[in-house]
Design brief:
405 residues; mainly alpha; 79% helix
Length: 405
């Protein structure tokens, strides 16, 4: 029993001695690190503090000293791009400091993050703003500074916003999108304008399905936001989804009835929808056509005409607008005549009536176009074709005399 107690005491003493030596070594290494840090020998300070952390990996003051040393090493570098690796390790080190530490360490941690971010963000922002008057200013440093700011504070909304804008202004559309995608991953609840910009850039790059998905999500959560509806309508238009775009444009016109661009867009979309419907009917067995097909077609045509006329009234004398309106009448009528040949009476007669009615209503539009473009042979040729189809042979001959064959 005495022997056992003696051995136990011996082990306890040995363990105690080891523990004493370990603490002494850690303290000595920490003092060396702090001394090197105070002397400005940051490489040596980093080496010493790393050794101390290996022995005490969770000790907050050691982790904080390492982060502060990495910050100093970053500042030594003149080029902001060379600082990134130090900021990255600094951020990872600070993440290891848990919440259960003294208020002093928490304050020093917050100050280190805040001051580091502020310096890099402001440097990038100053260069970004100076580019307006000096386009060569920045020299790649804008992205480096703002990238550093994001590395230091991944939830820094303003840094993402300016960096994305800079990439966009430089024609780097894909990198602008990548910046906003990074923001979506790192920021818990990105602001609406940033998410809307992301959708817009996706649309501009031609990633239509992804843009539509994002715009749709935003529209569901912000149903009264006109900008988002506008963007989603553009996405539908570019993707050829005419029925969806028409529905949105109707809503936009209801909220902004004087916006000519909405009227022009829906008129064009209704024209394409009519074309699509006609094509579908031509490819369908006449015996299976829905009885209300002609009524549906007429409704689309009447709605389109209203918007074309509105645009013409807002732009009197604008030849391009007048020509588009005239082309709408003429081209749609031509397709209806072709469709009628595919159908049996009485539906064929109904469709042909629609075509003749469109041509009749197109005459004043083409006459107006001829008055403003009297030497345009293509205009007179279209007028000649319309009069001929309507059986107005005297007027057709007169129009033909103005055509330079």
């Amino acid at each position: 029993m005495t022997v056992f107690l003696t051995r136990t005491a011996s082990l306890a003493l040995a363990f105690g001695f080891f523990f004493f030596v370990s603490c002494t070594t850690s303290l000595s290494t920490l003092e060396q690190a702090q001394s090197s840090f105070d002397d400005g020998d940051y490489e040596q300070a980093l080496s010493s503090v790393d050794k101390a952390i290996k022995e005490n990996p969770e000790q907050a003051d050691l982790l904080l000293l390492k982060a502060e040393t990495l910050h100093k090493l970053a500042l030594v570098k003149d080029r902001p791009g060379e600082r990134t690796i130090f900021y990255r390790e600094m951020t990872e080190t600070l993440k290891r400091i848990g919440p259960d530490v003294s208020e002093e360490i928490q304050q020093r941690k917050r100050a280190l993050i805040g001051n580091s971010w502020k310096a890099e963000h402001q440097a990038g922002t100053r260069l970004y703003r100076s580019q307006a008057s000096e386009p060569t200013t920045g020299d790649g440093r804008i992205n480096s500074h703002l990238g550093n700011a994001i590395e230091i504070a991944p939830d820094s909304i303003d840094s993402y916003r300016i960096k994305a804008s800079h990439h966009y202004n430089q024609g780097e559309l894909n990198r602008a999108i990548e910046t906003l995608e990074l923001a979506n991953r790192n920021v818990a609840d990105p602001p609406l304008d940033m998410r809307e910009k992301h959708a817009f850039l996706l649309l501009e790059e031609g990633r239509l399905e992804t843009a539509i998905e994002l715009y749709s999500t935003l529209a569901d959560s912000h149903p009264d936001n006109e900008r988002i509806k506008h963007g989603l309508a553009n996405a539908y238009i570019l993707d050829g989804r005419h029925s969806e775009s028409i529905q949105l444009l109707r809503e936009l016109i209801e909220s902004s009835p004087d916006d000519v661009s909405y009227h022009q867009a829906i008129a064009t979309e209704l024209f394409f929808q009519v074309q699509l419907l006609i094509q579908q009917m031509r490819e369908t067995n006449p015996d299976t056509l829905a009885p209300d097909f002609a009524t549906e077609l007429e409704q689309y045509l009447n709605e389109a005409e209203i918007h074309y006329q509105f645009v013409m009234e807002q732009h009197p004398g604008a030849s391009d607008v007048t020509y588009l309106t005239g082309a709408f009448y003429k081209n749609t009528a031509s397709q209806l005549f072709q469709l009628a040949e595919h159908l049996d009476s009485p539906l064929a007669d109904r469709v042909e009536e629609l075509a003749i009615d469109l041509l009749t209503r197109s005459v004043p539009v083409w006459q107006q176009l001829a008055e403003t473009n009297p030497e345009n042979s293509d205009v007179w040729r279209s007028i000649h074709q319309i009069y001929t189809r309507l059986g107005m042979m005297e007027e057709a001959e007169e129009a033909q005399s103005n055509v330079n064959f």
